[in-house]
């Protein structure tokens, strides 16, 4: 198979009718590493909205059970991608998502914003660091996929196009990104988790590298000291070079789903989708995001 053969295959498909299949091919064959990093960043962005970050801190899911929260989020969302909305696995995953949050008071605006991060952040990441830019078919398919997921989750007034998703995200961040002490604890815990996946001597370098990939608005909201301009340039260049290297490799012949990521640490003996996720915490006034 030639390097761009799968892209040509995607372009022959209907981005509306075949949206989930196109999205699956893009995620599991074309950009598995990039989608993992981009969706990590998408969730990380949500902490900078105080109504989200503060409540995540109150539930303690991302400060005391960080690895489990990471694993469960990836696995539940991955089940929908791998098996499709009509499958028993996807229905179980979405049911578990909705069960987790049925008892919480979640604003429509926060739910819609989080959905926007799933659509916008991967495109921006892949266009900047991937081995090629996303095609229009892939962009439209991503929009259709997450609009469908949003409807299953009861989210209202979902944007209809990528451009509307992007405008919604940018406007919401401009209006709501702000400092919050509890949100900073959630951000720190997530950074600690990501650096814990690697040998201890690399922790400081990795933390600086992650910060170098964050934009100024996010760094400002968390009050992180920005890495130097030289460090940011070096890190971003290194990630772009990785994408150029992937471009020279033969196309992936077998799919790679999120459940296969080595960062998933919590279930060495397997898992049941129905057992994943959290339960409402007594005394917490609301859940920040309508997602696993």
Automatic annotation (TrEMBL):
Domain of life: Bacteria
Domain ER-bound oxygenase mpaB/mpaB'/Rubber oxygenase catalytic: 43-241
A Pfam family recorded for this sequence: MPAB_Lcp_cat
InterPro entries reported for this sequence: MPAB (IPR046366), MPAB/Lcp_cat_dom (IPR018713)
Family matches, as PANTHER family: ER-BOUND OXYGENASE MPAB_MPAB'_RUBBER OXYGENASE CATALYTIC DOMAIN-CONTAINING PROTEIN (PTHR36124:SF1), PTHR36124
Name of protein: Peptidase
Protein's organism: Streptomyces djakartensis
Lineage: Bacteria, Bacillati, Actinomycetota, Actinomycetes, Kitasatosporales
């Amino acid at each position: 198979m030639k390097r761009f053969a799968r892209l040509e295959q995607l372009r022959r498909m209907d981005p509306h009718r075949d949206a989930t299949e196109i999205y699956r091919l893009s995620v599991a064959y074309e950009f598995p590493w990039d989608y993992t990093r981009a969706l990590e960043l998408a969730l990380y962005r949500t902490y900078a909205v105080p109504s989200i970050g503060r409540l995540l801190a109150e539930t303690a899911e991302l400060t005391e059970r960080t690895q489990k929260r990471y694993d469960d989020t990836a696995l539940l969302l991955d089940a929908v991608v791998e098996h499709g909305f009509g499958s028993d696995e996807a229905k179980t995953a979405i049911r578990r998502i909705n069960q987790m949050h049925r008892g919480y008071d979640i604003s429509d605006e926060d739910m819609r914003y989080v959905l926007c991060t799933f659509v916008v952040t991967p495109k921006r990441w892949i266009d900047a660091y991937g081995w090629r830019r996303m095609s229009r078919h892939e962009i439209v398919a991503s929009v259709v996929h997450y609009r469908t997921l949003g409807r299953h989750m009861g989210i209202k007034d979902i944007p209809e196009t990528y451009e509307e998703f992007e405008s919604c995200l940018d406007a919401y961040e401009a209006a709501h990104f702000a400092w919050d002490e509890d949100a900073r604890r959630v951000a720190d815990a997530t950074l600690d988790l990501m650096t814990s996946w690697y040998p201890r001597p690399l922790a400081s370098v990795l933390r600086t590298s992650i910060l170098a990939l964050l934009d100024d608005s996010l760094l400002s909201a968390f009050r992180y000291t920005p890495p130097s301009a030289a460090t940011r340039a070096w890190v971003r260049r290194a990630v772009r070079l990785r994408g150029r290297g992937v471009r020279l490799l033969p196309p992936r012949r077998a799919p790679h789903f999120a459940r296969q990521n080595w960062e998933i640490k919590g279930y060495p003996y397997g898992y049941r989708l129905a057992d994943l996720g959290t339960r409402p915490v007594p005394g917490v006034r609301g859940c920040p995001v309508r997602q696993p």
